[in-house]
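Hey,
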Amino acid sequence: MYTTYKQHGQNVTIYVTAKTGTLPDEGSLTLGVLSSDGARFTVEQASDLKVLNDSSAETVYPAVDVEDSGNSGGTQEPDEPTPPTEGEDGDGSDGTEDQTTYAITIRTSTGGKVTASAARAEQGEVITLNVAPNAGFELSSLTVTTSAGKKLSLADKGNGKYTFTMPAAAVAVTALFAPQETEPDFPFDDVAQGTWYYEGVRYAYEHGLMSGTGEGTFSPDLPTSRGMLVTILYRLAGSPAAGSASFTDVAPGQWYADGVAWASANGVVSGYTDGSFRPNDTITREQMAAILYQYARLQGKLDSGRADLSIFADVDDLSAYAKEPMSWAVAQGLFSGVSADMLAPGGSTTRAQAAVILTAFSKALG
């Protein structure tokens, strides 16, 4: 702990007194005289400190626990303000001036340290705090409060520097540090920030819903296949145990085989009348709406919201099986028209569109 005293034109005699036994000179040993000449000086180490002024009036201070630095972090308990010192001015006049200072206590959590420009200060002094997080950490919160619990205003000066004005009370500086949040590497060179699908692709990638098509590529403009969509939903469901698919064109061991088998067994897909699933076919917008509808039903997340599709001029192009699912999907905000009055139910869905739709779908399911 560092204890700072201001003296004006006074000499300070420092004594060391034994706690047990006696010392020469009636129990006290004079070590020396320190004259401040009106400037501030610091007592860096002290125990049972006793300060005498020139008139031999004494002020007794309590024991002080000294650490390597009172402003390097950890906890330093506040103490009482330094009392005023009386003395004579250089011209012989009796000048009495209050020089009360108040302690600045610093408490920090693991992950960094805070230093202050002073360990004690008078009311009105501007104190600078230097915040230094450790590698991999960042400042989470920084507060300065008085012993009465009043929070002081802090000014952020940039580069880890903050200032506050010292009140007429001891203060405690509390700094909390937290591990820095790091974003997973985003490997796709063909998905630029600022594109309408960037956040959707990023979410789908980070949550394991979609992966790339090659080293460093996502291929946002490629169409989404039926096998891709079913595999994505299978991952979203947690990749549960799956048997064998009964479709004639889904061979065991194919990358989509488990997803198709699981989706078929749970009524998420039904395939074509000829017994095929056609995993490599581009999925249409109405097929995607129907599959998402059935997945929501399976998860117990199928609410009653429905949209009026009569505003779309091509609503009659919807297949019978897709009318209810598409009405639901539009109400959920998963689909909108490709223009003001065209729904394009038979149109294809690109991988970028699929990523955006699946991101909204995943968030809606909670």
